[in-house]
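Our example copied in:
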Amino acid sequence: MYHPRELYPSLGTGYRLGPPQPVSDSSFPPALAEGYRYPDLDTTKLDCFLSGIEAAPRTLAAPPPLPPLPPALGTEPSPPAPEALHSLPGVSLSLENQELWKEFNSVGTEMIITKAGRRMFPACRVSVSGLDPEARYLFLLDVVPVDGARYRWQGRRWEPSGKAEPRLPDRVYIHPDSPATGAHWMRQPVSFHRVKLTNSTLDPHGHLILHSMHKYQPRVHLVRAAQLCSQHWGGVASFRFPETMFISVTAYQNPRITQLKIAANPFAKGFRENGRNCKRWAPFIHSLIHVTNPYLPPMCQAQF
Protein backbone atom coordinates (compact mmCIF):
# COMPACT_ATOMS: atom_id res chain seq x y z
CA MET A 1 0.00 0.00 0.00
CA TYR A 2 1.48 3.31 -1.08
CA HIS A 3 0.88 6.64 0.55
CA PRO A 4 -0.29 9.42 -1.79
CA ARG A 5 2.92 11.31 -1.03
CA GLU A 6 4.87 8.45 -2.58
CA LEU A 7 2.68 8.31 -5.69
CA TYR A 8 2.61 12.07 -6.18
CA PRO A 9 5.83 13.49 -4.73
CA SER A 10 5.31 16.72 -6.59
CA LEU A 11 2.30 17.49 -4.37
CA GLY A 12 4.40 17.52 -1.21
CA THR A 13 2.69 17.15 2.15
CA GLY A 14 -0.36 19.19 1.15
CA TYR A 15 -2.10 16.33 -0.62
CA ARG A 16 -5.65 15.78 0.66
CA LEU A 17 -7.94 12.86 0.07
CA GLY A 18 -11.52 13.82 -0.64
CA PRO A 19 -13.81 15.17 -3.29
CA PRO A 20 -12.48 17.60 -5.88
CA GLN A 21 -11.96 21.10 -4.60
CA PRO A 22 -13.17 24.24 -6.33
CA VAL A 23 -11.08 25.54 -9.18
CA SER A 24 -10.03 28.51 -7.06
CA ASP A 25 -8.09 26.13 -4.81
CA SER A 26 -4.65 26.16 -6.39
CA SER A 27 -3.38 23.39 -4.12
CA PHE A 28 -5.48 20.75 -5.96
CA PRO A 29 -4.43 20.32 -9.63
CA PRO A 30 -7.34 20.29 -12.08
CA ALA A 31 -5.93 17.18 -13.78
CA LEU A 32 -6.32 15.17 -10.60
CA ALA A 33 -9.78 16.56 -10.01
CA GLU A 34 -11.00 14.62 -13.05
CA GLY A 35 -9.93 11.38 -11.36
CA TYR A 36 -12.58 11.85 -8.71
CA ARG A 37 -15.44 11.92 -11.24
CA TYR A 38 -17.19 8.63 -11.89
CA PRO A 39 -19.76 9.09 -14.67
CA ASP A 40 -20.68 5.39 -14.63
CA LEU A 41 -21.78 5.57 -10.99
CA ASP A 42 -24.73 7.90 -11.37
CA THR A 43 -27.68 7.92 -8.99
CA THR A 44 -30.04 5.90 -11.19
CA LYS A 45 -27.69 2.90 -11.35
CA LEU A 46 -27.34 2.80 -7.53
CA ASP A 47 -31.05 2.94 -6.74
CA CYS A 48 -31.30 -0.85 -6.46
CA PHE A 49 -28.67 -0.86 -3.72
CA LEU A 50 -29.78 2.26 -1.90
CA SER A 51 -33.55 1.78 -2.06
CA GLY A 52 -33.86 1.83 1.72
CA ILE A 53 -31.95 5.07 2.16
CA GLU A 54 -33.71 8.39 1.83
CA ALA A 55 -32.24 10.83 -0.61
CA ALA A 56 -32.68 13.82 1.66
CA PRO A 57 -30.74 13.67 4.92
CA ARG A 58 -32.83 13.58 8.05
CA THR A 59 -32.00 15.62 11.16
CA LEU A 60 -31.69 13.31 14.13
CA ALA A 61 -33.13 14.29 17.47
CA ALA A 62 -30.68 15.38 20.16
CA PRO A 63 -29.51 12.49 22.34
CA PRO A 64 -30.73 12.47 25.93
CA PRO A 65 -28.35 14.18 28.38
CA LEU A 66 -25.89 11.88 30.11
CA PRO A 67 -25.99 11.64 33.91
CA PRO A 68 -23.37 13.81 35.64
CA LEU A 69 -20.09 12.11 36.43
CA PRO A 70 -19.12 11.68 40.10
CA PRO A 71 -16.62 14.24 41.37
CA ALA A 72 -12.95 13.35 41.00
CA LEU A 73 -11.19 11.99 44.05
CA GLY A 74 -10.08 14.86 46.24
CA THR A 75 -12.44 17.48 44.73
CA GLU A 76 -15.49 16.66 46.80
CA PRO A 77 -15.85 19.21 49.62
CA SER A 78 -16.49 18.06 53.14
CA PRO A 79 -20.20 18.32 53.97
CA PRO A 80 -20.97 21.02 56.51
CA ALA A 81 -23.58 18.78 58.18
CA PRO A 82 -24.34 15.07 58.37
CA GLU A 83 -25.01 13.98 54.80
CA ALA A 84 -27.62 11.36 53.98
CA LEU A 85 -27.94 9.60 50.62
CA HIS A 86 -30.85 7.26 50.94
CA SER A 87 -34.01 5.78 49.53
CA LEU A 88 -35.55 5.28 52.97
CA PRO A 89 -37.68 8.40 53.48
CA GLY A 90 -38.17 9.51 57.05
CA VAL A 91 -35.09 7.70 58.38
CA SER A 92 -32.59 9.85 60.28
CA LEU A 93 -29.30 9.10 62.00
CA SER A 94 -27.49 11.08 64.70
CA LEU A 95 -23.99 10.73 66.12
CA GLU A 96 -24.28 9.94 69.82
CA ASN A 97 -20.73 10.91 70.87
CA GLN A 98 -20.59 13.94 68.62
CA GLU A 99 -18.99 16.23 71.19
CA LEU A 100 -16.12 13.80 71.72
CA TRP A 101 -15.54 13.51 67.99
CA LYS A 102 -15.57 17.30 67.66
CA GLU A 103 -12.95 17.60 70.39
CA PHE A 104 -10.65 15.21 68.52
CA ASN A 105 -11.45 16.77 65.16
CA SER A 106 -10.42 20.21 66.41
CA VAL A 107 -6.91 18.85 66.97
CA GLY A 108 -6.76 16.44 64.04
CA THR A 109 -7.99 12.92 64.78
CA GLU A 110 -5.50 10.08 64.33
CA MET A 111 -6.29 6.37 64.32
CA ILE A 112 -3.70 3.66 64.93
CA ILE A 113 -3.58 0.84 62.37
CA THR A 114 -1.63 -2.38 62.92
CA LYS A 115 -1.22 -5.68 61.14
CA ALA A 116 -3.21 -7.47 63.83
CA GLY A 117 -5.94 -4.80 63.74
CA ARG A 118 -6.68 -1.96 66.16
CA ARG A 119 -10.06 -0.71 67.33
CA MET A 120 -11.11 2.86 66.66
CA PHE A 121 -11.31 5.44 69.40
CA PRO A 122 -13.56 7.31 69.41
CA ALA A 123 -15.84 4.64 67.98
CA CYS A 124 -18.85 5.42 65.81
CA ARG A 125 -21.95 5.36 68.00
CA VAL A 126 -25.22 6.37 66.37
CA SER A 127 -28.94 6.55 67.09
CA VAL A 128 -31.54 5.89 64.39
CA SER A 129 -35.19 6.87 64.11
CA GLY A 130 -37.94 6.56 61.53
CA LEU A 131 -37.59 2.81 60.87
CA ASP A 132 -40.46 0.42 60.39
CA PRO A 133 -40.62 -1.45 63.72
CA GLU A 134 -41.62 -4.72 62.04
CA ALA A 135 -39.21 -4.63 59.08
CA ARG A 136 -35.69 -6.05 59.26
CA TYR A 137 -32.56 -4.00 58.57
CA LEU A 138 -28.81 -4.44 58.22
CA PHE A 139 -26.36 -1.96 59.75
CA LEU A 140 -23.03 -1.59 57.92
CA LEU A 141 -19.94 0.58 58.24
CA ASP A 142 -17.08 1.24 55.85
CA VAL A 143 -14.18 3.70 55.64
CA VAL A 144 -13.35 5.51 52.40
CA PRO A 145 -10.53 7.91 51.40
CA VAL A 146 -11.32 11.60 51.66
CA ASP A 147 -8.93 12.77 48.96
CA GLY A 148 -6.08 11.63 46.74
CA ALA A 149 -3.21 12.83 48.93
CA ARG A 150 -0.75 11.33 51.36
CA TYR A 151 -0.11 13.34 54.52
CA ARG A 152 2.85 14.16 56.73
CA TRP A 153 3.05 15.64 60.22
CA GLN A 154 5.00 18.87 60.08
CA GLY A 155 5.42 19.46 63.80
CA ARG A 156 2.25 21.51 64.26
CA ARG A 157 -0.20 20.32 61.61
CA TRP A 158 -0.82 17.75 58.91
CA GLU A 159 0.07 18.71 55.36
CA PRO A 160 -0.23 16.88 52.03
CA SER A 161 3.09 15.36 51.01
CA GLY A 162 2.38 13.64 47.71
CA LYS A 163 0.01 11.41 45.83
CA ALA A 164 -2.01 8.80 47.69
CA GLU A 165 -1.24 5.11 47.46
CA PRO A 166 -3.46 2.99 45.17
CA ARG A 167 -6.83 2.38 46.76
CA LEU A 168 -7.07 -0.85 48.71
CA PRO A 169 -9.92 -3.37 48.44
CA ASP A 170 -13.08 -1.94 49.91
CA ARG A 171 -14.40 -3.85 52.90
CA VAL A 172 -17.60 -3.40 54.87
CA TYR A 173 -18.13 -4.17 58.55
CA ILE A 174 -21.52 -5.76 59.24
CA HIS A 175 -22.90 -5.09 62.71
CA PRO A 176 -23.21 -8.45 64.50
CA ASP A 177 -26.90 -7.80 65.33
CA SER A 178 -27.78 -7.69 61.62
CA PRO A 179 -30.38 -8.40 60.47
CA ALA A 180 -32.70 -7.08 63.18
CA THR A 181 -36.05 -5.36 63.31
CA GLY A 182 -36.43 -1.62 63.26
CA ALA A 183 -37.69 -1.75 66.84
CA HIS A 184 -34.43 -3.40 67.90
CA TRP A 185 -32.23 -0.76 66.25
CA MET A 186 -34.28 2.14 67.62
CA ARG A 187 -34.35 0.77 71.17
CA GLN A 188 -30.82 1.98 72.01
CA PRO A 189 -27.73 3.51 70.33
CA VAL A 190 -25.91 1.32 67.82
CA SER A 191 -22.18 1.05 68.52
CA PHE A 192 -19.44 0.06 66.08
CA HIS A 193 -16.76 -0.26 68.77
CA ARG A 194 -15.70 -3.68 67.45
CA VAL A 195 -14.51 -2.29 64.11
CA LYS A 196 -10.78 -2.86 63.65
CA LEU A 197 -8.36 -1.11 61.29
CA THR A 198 -5.36 -2.83 59.76
CA ASN A 199 -2.58 -2.10 57.27
CA SER A 200 -2.18 -5.73 56.26
CA THR A 201 -3.34 -6.24 52.69
CA LEU A 202 -3.49 -10.01 53.34
CA ASP A 203 -5.67 -9.68 56.44
CA PRO A 204 -7.85 -12.82 56.78
CA HIS A 205 -10.08 -11.53 59.60
CA GLY A 206 -12.23 -9.07 57.69
CA HIS A 207 -10.71 -5.95 59.26
CA LEU A 208 -10.90 -2.70 57.31
CA ILE A 209 -7.65 -2.26 55.35
CA LEU A 210 -6.16 1.26 55.25
CA HIS A 211 -2.97 2.97 54.16
CA SER A 212 -0.93 4.78 56.77
CA MET A 213 -0.71 8.59 56.57
CA HIS A 214 -3.95 8.90 54.58
CA LYS A 215 -7.17 10.73 55.47
CA TYR A 216 -10.33 8.64 55.75
CA GLN A 217 -14.05 9.10 56.37
CA PRO A 218 -16.28 6.49 58.07
CA ARG A 219 -19.73 5.92 56.57
CA VAL A 220 -22.75 4.20 58.11
CA HIS A 221 -25.19 2.34 55.88
CA LEU A 222 -28.67 1.08 56.69
CA VAL A 223 -30.17 -1.56 54.39
CA ARG A 224 -33.70 -2.86 54.52
CA ALA A 225 -33.32 -6.61 53.98
CA ALA A 226 -34.47 -9.76 55.72
CA GLN A 227 -31.17 -11.65 55.27
CA LEU A 228 -27.48 -10.85 55.03
CA CYS A 229 -27.19 -12.28 51.53
CA SER A 230 -30.58 -11.12 50.32
CA GLN A 231 -30.81 -10.02 46.70
CA HIS A 232 -33.95 -7.99 47.35
CA TRP A 233 -33.31 -4.75 49.18
CA GLY A 234 -36.16 -2.53 50.23
CA GLY A 235 -33.98 0.59 50.32
CA VAL A 236 -30.60 1.90 51.42
CA ALA A 237 -29.65 4.88 53.57
CA SER A 238 -26.04 6.10 53.84
CA PHE A 239 -24.80 8.66 56.35
CA ARG A 240 -21.48 10.32 57.10
CA PHE A 241 -20.46 12.92 59.65
CA PRO A 242 -17.69 15.44 58.86
CA GLU A 243 -16.31 15.39 62.40
CA THR A 244 -15.44 11.67 62.14
CA MET A 245 -12.67 12.15 59.56
CA PHE A 246 -9.26 10.92 60.69
CA ILE A 247 -5.71 10.23 59.51
CA SER A 248 -4.44 6.68 59.85
CA VAL A 249 -1.04 6.28 61.52
CA THR A 250 1.14 3.51 62.90
CA ALA A 251 2.19 5.76 65.82
CA TYR A 252 0.60 8.97 67.09
CA GLN A 253 2.25 12.06 65.63
CA ASN A 254 0.44 14.85 67.47
CA PRO A 255 1.17 14.91 71.24
CA ARG A 256 -2.22 16.53 71.88
CA ILE A 257 -3.94 13.51 70.34
CA THR A 258 -2.01 11.23 72.69
CA GLN A 259 -3.18 13.29 75.66
CA LEU A 260 -6.79 13.23 74.49
CA LYS A 261 -6.72 9.48 73.95
CA ILE A 262 -5.34 8.87 77.44
CA ALA A 263 -7.82 11.27 79.02
CA ALA A 264 -10.95 10.07 77.17
CA ASN A 265 -10.34 6.38 76.54
CA PRO A 266 -11.59 4.28 79.48
CA PHE A 267 -9.14 1.52 78.56
CA ALA A 268 -6.18 3.90 78.96
CA LYS A 269 -6.73 4.75 82.62
CA GLY A 270 -3.43 3.05 83.52
CA PHE A 271 -1.60 5.80 81.61
CA ARG A 272 -3.30 8.63 83.44
CA GLU A 273 -1.38 10.58 85.99
CA ASN A 274 -3.97 9.98 88.72
CA GLY A 275 -4.99 6.49 87.66
CA ARG A 276 -5.08 3.64 90.15
CA ASN A 277 -2.89 1.40 88.04
CA CYS A 278 -0.30 4.02 87.18
CA LYS A 279 2.45 2.09 89.00
CA ARG A 280 1.99 -1.10 87.04
CA TRP A 281 3.03 0.74 83.86
CA ALA A 282 6.24 2.02 85.45
CA PRO A 283 8.42 -0.96 84.28
CA PHE A 284 7.12 -0.55 80.77
CA ILE A 285 7.77 3.20 80.70
CA HIS A 286 11.17 2.68 82.28
CA SER A 287 12.21 0.14 79.64
CA LEU A 288 10.84 2.36 76.88
CA ILE A 289 12.87 5.34 78.08
CA HIS A 290 15.96 3.19 78.48
CA VAL A 291 15.66 1.86 74.93
CA THR A 292 15.07 5.24 73.38
CA ASN A 293 17.81 6.90 75.42
CA PRO A 294 20.21 4.39 77.02
CA TYR A 295 22.49 7.21 78.14
CA LEU A 296 19.88 8.72 80.41
CA PRO A 297 21.37 9.16 83.91
CA PRO A 298 20.23 6.51 86.44
CA MET A 299 18.92 9.22 88.74
CA CYS A 300 16.49 10.37 86.01
CA GLN A 301 15.49 6.79 85.26
CA ALA A 302 14.75 6.05 88.92
CA GLN A 303 11.67 8.31 88.99
CA PHE A 304 10.00 6.02 86.47
Observations:
- The chain has a mean pLDDT of 74.
- The radius of gyration is 34 Å.
- Residues 270 and 281 are 7 Å apart (CA to CA).
- The helical segments are 4-7, 30-33, 98-107, 182-187, 255-264, 282-292, 298-302.
